[in-house]
Specification:
mainly alpha, single chain
Length: about 70
């Protein structure tokens, strides 16, 4: 161990390295959190749209199938 100006380890010398690592890792972690939240929101909206499409037949439009079923029923 060197006490005076040697090549020893200084505890306060590690603080800038830890701070820099934290400053870099925070945006990376937040980016992954935002990406995950976006994926969850898009999947939820897709499921809601799919269920709405199944429940509301008027949104699907009336094609040939709708006209034929009416003529068969009459």
């Amino acid at each position: 161990m060197v006490r005076d100006g040697g090549g020893g380890w200084r505890p306060l010398g590690a603080v800038p390295r830890v701070a820099m690592a934290g400053a870099i890792s925070v945006p990376v972690v937040l980016g992954f959190v935002v990406l995950g939240a976006g994926v969850i929101v898009v999947r939820s909206l897709r499921d809601v749209a799919r269920e709405t499409w199944a429940w509301v037949p008027s949104l699907r439009g009336t094609g040939r199938g709708g006209d034929q079923s009416r003529s068969d029923a009459a």
